[in-house]
Amino acid sequence: MPRKAETKWIKDIKGYSDTFNVGDPPILTNQLSNVKVRRGIVSGRGGMTKYPSGASAAAADIIGLFNYRQADGGHILVRMQPTSVQWLNGSSWTDITGPALTGTTSTRPQYALVDDSGAGDAISLLFTNGIDLPRYWSGSGNTAAIAAGTSPYGKGVFYYLGFVFLTNVSDDGTFTDIFDGHRTGRFTDAWNTSWGICTEDLIVLDETPGSWDASVVLGRSVIACKSDGFVLLRHTTATGARFTQELMTDKVGILSPLSLQKLDETSAICMGTDNTLLLLTLQGIKSISYEELFELMKPAISAGRLHLSRSMVNHNEKTYYLFDDRTGLSLQLLDSYVAFHYAGKEYTKGELGKSIIAAEAFKTTDSAPVDLLVSSTDDFVQEFDTGADDDGIAITRTWQTGWQKFNEQGWVHGARMIFAQSGTGKVRIDIATDFGDFKAQQTFSLKGGAPTDDYVEVTYRMPSPVKCEFANIRIKFLHTAAATETELQQIGFELSNIQPTGDQKDRGAPA
């Protein structure tokens, strides 16, 4: 018979990694989905709900979402479809297109906010779909071509130290008319009145032959992200040139322009042509996800869809989200995500109940909570990480310890777990031993003994102890209401060793 069980507690859970091996402590695991891991706590992610509630569907795919910050600290949500643009006016969408756009369902727009529009302290929203002339909107009326249509065409746009840049440019919209146009940037400090043709108003990133696909401003410098490298730009007061340029690397480039996100004034993240996440700093370019995600990303690599990835950052939670397609969908639909909690260097992953196209972190004012917004295939804007399900489609939220190897073969009795109290949350727990199937499923409420309880201890006991060398516990987080939150604070196996021969009672010599 087994001895009395002792609890082997597991602390400091770190999230997902492909480097997890059988027998490793479950600080890392390669078996989780639709959960978040931060500061050693595992929690079920929220779902997707229509934003705002009651808003109508768009007439076509929503290919872009823009967070238009105003000078007074208020924010306006703008959405782009292939041929039109609208802003969210209360709970309804107001068209501001002006002349129709000519984008397609595979268009990937970029936008920038410019605070020197010539109208006091007003801020203008500039955007380009890479097909039509770049446009702007200043919060009233319709969108219009910048500089009355005299600007070049551009596939990228950014704002830096009073200058508006258009990158990967063309004069006639064919993007084949300018020699080196794919790696050229045009700039001006009078973006709505004058775009000269002087050689002093352009930069050619001829350090590598690839295209200039995206840019990020870090402090008083810019990292220009090319399809085959990264170039550092800095403003200068030297005669004859306004900017210096320096090659950072030609060993890797940016794979998906819309994977680029600024984390703070010192760093940014994007998906690189080596199929890993790259950390961009002024000191260099570094791959940060190869060891953790090399197996996870293989389906997306095989499908050839990573260049369509979208991203967003929740700065309040210090989390970067990359949305990708691991199944080979049509157009630019995305069905999965990777989340990187960059403050704690924890990765998680998940699958979406509804495929999405665009993604943007938005808040109604500077001091308001962040709303993570995506556009779904049924032409709605959805708030991500809120609600019980993905707009009516159930979410499976799971975390496993992975196969744990004990010091010696012994008895597993079950597990003890500490959860945050939740009035509507439940967990479903089962166990597998010695690489067998999961068995002995049990469901527990997280209400606790009293409404004032902060934490709930759940004791999971198998019908009878099992003698084994390996065990794996699986937890499913069940959200039964829109506001449900579930958090695993700590977990411990209940174990006992096999009683050695020397500890058995002396029954005398055999007859």
Question: Briefly, what is this?
Answer:
This protein has 511 residues and is mainly beta. 2% of the residues lie in helices and 48% in strands.
Produce the secondary structure layout:
Elements: E1 6-10, E2 15-16, E3 28-29, E4 32-33, E5 35-38, E6 41-44, E7 48-50, E8 64-69, E9 75-80, E10 85-89, E11 92-95, E12 110-114, E13 124-128, E14 135-137, E15 144-145, E16 153-160, E17 163-170, E18 184-188, E19 202-204, E20 212-218, E21 221-226, E22 229-235, E23 243-249, E24 261-264, E25 267-271, E26 277-281, E27 284-287, H1 290-293, H2 298-303, E28 310-314, E29 319-324, E30 334-341, E31 346-362, E32 371-376, E33 381-384, E34 398-400, E35 404-420, E36 425-433, E37 439-445, E38 455-479, E39 487-497
Parallel strand pairs: 2-3
Antiparallel strand pairs: 1-39, 4-34, 5-6, 6-39, 7-33, 8-9, 9-10, 10-11, 12-13, 13-14, 14-15, 16-17, 17-18, 18-19, 20-21, 21-22, 22-23, 24-25, 25-26, 26-27, 28-29, 29-30, 30-31, 31-32, 32-33, 34-38, 35-38, 35-39, 36-37, 36-38
